[in-house]
Amino acid sequence: MDVIVETVPVTGDDLPGYAVRLYDAYLLRPELVRLATWARLERTPTGDLYHFMPGHDAQKIQSIADAQARGLVDPGIAPADVLAIVTTMSMTWSPASPMYTAHKDEPEAAHKARRTALALTVQRAFTP
User: Fold this and answer.
1) What global pTM score does this model have?
2) How does pLDDT run across 47-75, given as a tens digit for each residue?
3) What is the pLDDT of residues 13-27, one digit of tens each?
4) Are the beta carbons of 19 and 122 closer than 8 angstroms?
5) Could you give the C-alpha distances from 41 to 37, 44, 45, in angstroms and in order?
6) Is-contact 72 12, C-beta < 8 A?
């Protein structure tokens, strides 16, 4: 679970980049998404998936709150909710996707188009 939580550090001042880095991490380590999904389905069906790791997302949330205070991220959404939404958006093509799961061996052009769409969507969603 530590690997899942710490695979990609969040930077509140670059949420689009964070989402893209998560997308890339899911391509390289799809088992992380599978493990988290399994834990959600079998072990922790509601609430904080990482409840047994107090403070696991404190730095990520603080980074987003700091970016909000600097006017870089919409302050109308709680930092924890921003983190949850961006993380979920980054999983659009992950093994947890109900629509389509990307594979690292697909053409780079497909990955580039997804990264661009993801970054643009996150930017539009959270820029004040």
Assistant:
1) 0.89
2) 877 777 778 789 999 999 999 999 999 99
3) 999 999 999 999 999
4) yes
5) 6, 7, 5
6) yes
